[in-house]
Amino acid sequence: MFNYTFRWNQALNALPQMLDGALVTLQIALLSMVIGVAVAVALTLFRLSGNRVLRAIAATWVELARNTPALFQIYMAHFGLGAFGIHLSPYASLLAGIAFNNAGYLAENFRGALKAIPDTQTRAARSLGMPAGQAFRLIVMPQMFRVAFLPATNQMVWAILMTSLGVTVGMNTDLAGITQELNARSFRTFEFFAIAAVIYYVIAKAVTLAAQAFAWRMFRY
Amino acid sequence: MFDTALSWNDMIFLAQGAGMTLMVTAVAVLAGTVMGIVFGVLRYQLGTWWSLPLTFVLDIFRSVPLLIQLVLGNAFQAIARLGWEPFTTSCVILSLYTAAYCTEIVRGGIEAVPPTTRRAARSLGLTWWGDMRYIVAPLATRVSLPAWIGLTLGVLKDSALVLWLGLIELLRASQILVTRLQEPLFILMICGAIYFLLSFPIARLGGYLEKRWSPHD
Predict the structure, then answer these.
(1) What value does the CA radius of gyration of chain A take, rounded to a whole number of Å?
(2) Closest-CA residue of chain B to A156
(3) How far is B44 from chain A (nearest CA, A)?
């Protein structure tokens, strides 16, 4: 059927290298999620605050992150910041781009989750004598995380898939980058990228399952 | 920053890039939606177990990075000697990618139609097709349209990745200009503004419909 000899051996021999790359991919995704959640909580607080400037910052961030491509955001971090004399390495710009994207989407998730928490919770906490900050931190936020956890899991999978974009700014240590380097050396494009696809699939599924197990352990009543 | 070497010809070049982005998105969303509706109905009709192979295949398109899918698709068409242009390959892969998400949306929409309503339709003498056409389709559309608009926006943004196959769409066009004019921030900001202008109004429309059509408020 095909006038082509598949050389899976060559690709399978490179498997250890690619798995090292998969670790880097996972590391970037996790870091971007940690930064993303931290910034998203800050953005959520900005949105709730009475300060108009803070609200505008949060709204701009969320709309920019959600209405431009992730690849554009990574380009902006890599090429655009050069105008300010900030020259990021591919790793840093990839991380910055994904974290920016995550923060925007997660802030929107958190906002939706906040809507699901009844006002009476805050009022009850306040009438027990808690200051506003404490009520938010101890009563509202845990519930917010519970509701937002599953959408955040999806975002984590998205973050893993987005790390593959690093190859367009010259990243060569993550899974996509290593695959591309191996491909450039041997031109066994199909074999190498098929194996990379399988690894990405396994990582995505493993993360989803782990998150479900975690949610079952943590959030069950 | 306002002292730029960007000329009108370059703006036209960017506009052509934006046209390519819109074209790829339109093809992918159209084909993807048609496939998504077919697969969604199939998934619903076959039930969990019999549609397992379909679910698995579609899940692959959602769990593997689009960039990898595009490279694989391109390599495959070369191996199979299909002789596709990068544009065709991009459209095929993006359509399948869209279909994978659209299937879930369609299935969710069909499941949101109360079974009692459908049974009532059938007992009034409507055929399966009549039930689908006159009862399920309008109700399911109402539920799934906001999600479908979200998907369209996602595809519009993800279509930037076709630059890897050499298609000159909006982002690639601005990258070419950046290489020539060495004004990365300014040109990328224009590029971002165009993306924003394309996607923000549709996003707002989606948010409005979600509020307006929400069955419970």
Answers:
(1) 21
(2) B63
(3) 23
Q: How far apart are CA B53 and CA B59, in angstroms?
A: 10
Question: What CATH number did the domain enclosing B177 receive?
Answer: 1.10.3720.10
The answer to whether residue B100 sits within a structural domain is yes
**Chain B positions in Cβ-Cβ contact with residue A69 (cut-off 8 Å):** 157-158, 160-161, 171, 195
Instruction: Report the distance separating Cα A108 and Cα A152, nearest Å.
Output: 11
Let me know if residue B1 belongs to a domain: no
Interface test with B, best of A4, A6, A72 (most B CBs within 10 A): A72
B68·A71 Cβ contact <8 A = no
User: How far does Cα B140 stand from its chain's mean position?
Assistant: 19
Q: Using alpha carbons, select from B66, B57, B209 the residue that is nearest to residue B143.
A: B209
Average pLDDT over residues A15-31: 92
Question: Between chains, do B199 and A2 touch, taking CB under 8 Å as contact?
Answer: no
What is the average pLDDT score of chain A?
91
B189-214 per-position pLDDT tens digit: 999 999 999 988 888 888 888 888 76
Query: Count of CB contacts below 8 A, A vs B?
Result: 111
Nearest to A176 among B68, B78, B189 (CB): B68
What domains does chain A contain, in order, with CATH numbers?
A: 26-218 (1.10.3720.10)
For A97-153, the pLDDT digits (tens) are 999 999 999 999 999 899 889 989 999 999 999 998 899 999 999 999 888 998 899
Q: What is the mean pLDDT of residues A59-88?
A: 90
* Cα-based distances in Å from A176 to A169, A195, B61, B118, B167: 12, 11, 16, 48, 20
Cβ distance of B185 and A157 shorter than 8 Å: no
Judging by beta carbons within 10 Å of its beta carbon (0-12, 13-18, 19+), is residue B164 exposed, middle or buried?
buried
A157 Cβ under 8 Å from any chain B Cβ:
yes
The shortest C-alpha distance from B13 to chain A (Å) reads 18
- Is the CB of A67 less than 8 angstroms away from the CB of B153? yes
| pTM (predicted TM-score) | 0.90
Q: What residues 120-159 of chain B have any CB closer than 8 A to a CB of chain A?
A: 153, 157-158
- The answer to whether B109 and B141 have CB atoms below 8 angstroms apart is yes
Establish if B7 belongs to a structural domain.
no
Domains held by chain B: number: 1
ipTM of the complex: 0.88
In a domain, B3, yes or no: no
Closest CA to B22 of B169, B145, B206: B169
Distance from first CA to last CA of chain A, Å, rounded?
A: 57
